[in-house]
Structures are given as C-alpha cells and as structure tokens.
C-alpha cells in the first residue's frame, strides 16, 4: 500500500444517488473527487503533469513555474509543487473565492489575481513564458492532463461499476477529465455514451466553460463527446444546494451543473448506469453566496 500523500490521489468513492434520481430502472452514481488530498479531480492531472515534466527533464528545482487556473488545478499544483520543492506562481481571475487564494498560499505558491478573468490570466501566464523564461504546464494543451484520466479515472469507473457503466457525465472546463475518461471507456465498450456539460449562453458557472474559439483547449476532441447538455447558472446553484441537503454531498457549482445534466439524462432513459463526476468539495465556496 502506498502510504504517501501522492499515493492517496485517485481511487475515489463511487456512491449511488439515493434521493435525487427517481427513475427506478436507472442507477446514478456520483464519483466523489473531493476525496482526493487536494480536494478535487485536478489532483490527478496536476500530479501527472508535474511528474512527467520532472521525469523528462523539462523542469527541475531551479525552474520558474507559472500556471493560469480558475482554482482547483492551482490548488493541486500548489500542493504537489510544495512536496517536490518547486516554486510556482498561480494566476487566477480576481473573482476567485478567498478560500482558494488562501489554500494556494498555504501550500507555498505565489498567487496573482487578474482582472480579466481566466482568459486574461492565460494571456498573462503565456507572456511570462515568452518574455521571462517561465515554464507553464498549460493544462489546456498538455497531453498529460487528459492522460491522467485515461490512466486512473476511466479504469476506476470501469472497475467500480463491474463494466456496467452506460453513460458518463462530466462538466467541461479544460476538458481533461472528459477526454481521458472517454478515451478509456470507449476502448472497453464503444457503446458507452459520453455526455459533456456546458453553460447555457449568458450563464457563468465556475469550472464549466463554453470557450471562445481562440481559447478552446487544444486537448479537446469533439469526437470523444457523444452529446452535450447545457445548464443554466440557476439550475447549477439549485442542484448544488440539493446535493448538500438531500444527498449529503457538499460540492461546488460545476458539480451541481453536472448532476443537473445527469438527472435530465436519467429521466430520459429506460435503463442504464450513469456515472457523474463530483469534481470538488463545497467548503472552498463557503465565502461565496453559493449556499446562502
């Protein structure tokens, strides 16, 4: 048994919906990624990106690292960079919750808040790479992002459903989770349906994006997603609150968005086994109005 902190990344619980899913012929499972040591699904990608960059000599302890993040990837990178004694600057939208900023600083990272959202943060980080010799993992274009889920998330879902999973539902941000999990599950059974979740036009949901064309993640391959469902911010908030009150799962708004889509799907199906990602813990949103 690997009793290091790194060894605790992955193998997260898969728990059955006991309240929200009311279709008796469909099983809906929540994959609790908040149980990772850094509190989100992003621990998987962050570890894979750092470890591979170290193994291939792209970075070492003298490297100046920088990454643009909306939050969870930054926390995961800060935690793992600290373990490996790496210096990292994390650039986040100025709207980031206080808990996220404080958590990254606690792990030893430098935090820069950018007024122009995640796109502005990405531009700022790339300028430092081009002009000041920084190295960025660039999660949006890094193959090690989605490969983390090909190696871990997909196999865990296949194993824990005894190969009976019929639908996989995931919010889409950097798209690493859905790309890697889709790649693995489709190899096991090409009939498994992969459902991506995006915000409706005009809706802002942290962790779920509909990217402008010039910012579309390079790792995204539309052929790996069978269907896209759109949810509104109000739906995502309402479902996040219901998840906490009715299922006992305290999560962030992107998880509420994913479960909104998963329940729409469950209500359509005659039978099936749906797995949906609960991508983080809700305690990092308590200073926001999410649970007010």
UniProtKB/TrEMBL annotation:
InterPro entries xrefs: Cys_synth (IPR005856), Cys_Synth/Cystath_Beta-Synth (IPR050214), CysM (IPR005858), P-phosphate_BS (IPR001216), TrpB-like_PALP (IPR001926), TrpB-like_PALP_sf (IPR036052)
Stretches assigned to coiled coil: none
This protein's source sits in the domain of life called: Bacteria
A GO MF annotation of the entry reads:
cysteine synthase activity
Pathway involvement? Amino-acid biosynthesis; L-cysteine biosynthesis; L-cysteine from L-serine: step 2/2
Pfam family name, one:
PALP
Transmembrane annotation, as ranges:
none
Q: Which cofactor does it need?
A: pyridoxal 5'-phosphate
Reactions listed under catalytic activity: O-acetyl-L-serine + hydrogen sulfide = L-cysteine + acetate
Q: Which EC numbers characterise this protein's activity in its record?
A: 2.5.1.47
Keywords linked to the UniProt accession = Amino-acid biosynthesis, Cysteine biosynthesis, Pyridoxal phosphate, Transferase
Decide whether keyword Transferase is in the record. yes
Asked if Iron is a keyword of the record, the answer is: no
Family, as annotated: Belongs to the cysteine synthase/cystathionine beta-synthase family.
- What name goes with this protein? Cysteine synthase
* Lineage of the organism: Bacteria, Pseudomonadati, Bacteroidota, Flavobacteriia, Flavobacteriales
Gene name tied to this protein: cysM
């Amino acid at each position: 048994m690997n009793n290091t902190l790194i060894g605790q990344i992955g193998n997260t619980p898969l728990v059955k919906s006991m309240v929200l899913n009311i279709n008796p012929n469909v099983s809906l499972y929540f994959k609790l990624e908040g149980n990772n040591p850094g509190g989100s699904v992003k621990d998987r990608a962050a570890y894979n990106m750092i470890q591979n960059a170290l193994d291939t000599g792209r970075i070492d302890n003298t490297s100046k690292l920088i990454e643009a993040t909306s939050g969870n990837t930054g926390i995961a990178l800060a935690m793992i960079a600290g373990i490996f004694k790496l210096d990292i600057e994390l650039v986040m939208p100025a709207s980031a919750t206080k808990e996220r900023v404080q958590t990254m600083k606690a792990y030893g990272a430098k935090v820069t808040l950018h007024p122009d959202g995640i796109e502005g943060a990405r531009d700022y980080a790339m300028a430092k790479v081009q002009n000041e010799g920084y190295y960025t993992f660039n999660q949006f274009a890094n193959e090690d992002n989605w490969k983390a889920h090909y190696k871990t998330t997909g196999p865990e879902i296949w194993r824990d459903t005894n190969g009976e999973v019929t639908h996989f539902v995931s919010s889409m941000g950097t798209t690493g989770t859905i790309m890697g999990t889709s790649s693995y599950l489709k190899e096991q059974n090409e009939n498994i349906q992969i459902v991506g979740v995006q915000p409706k036009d005009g809706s802002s949901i942290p962790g779920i994006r509909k990217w402008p064309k010039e910012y579309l993640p390079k790792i995204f391959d539309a052929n790996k997603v069978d269907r896209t469902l759109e949810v509104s911010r109000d739906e995502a908030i309402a479902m996040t609150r219901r998840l906490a009150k009715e299922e006992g799962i305290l999560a962030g708004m992107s998880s509420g968005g994913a479960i909104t889509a998963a329940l729409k799907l469950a209500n359509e199906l005659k039978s099936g086994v749906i797995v949906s990602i609960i991508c983080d813990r809700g305690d990092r949103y308590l200073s926001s109005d999410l649970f007010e």
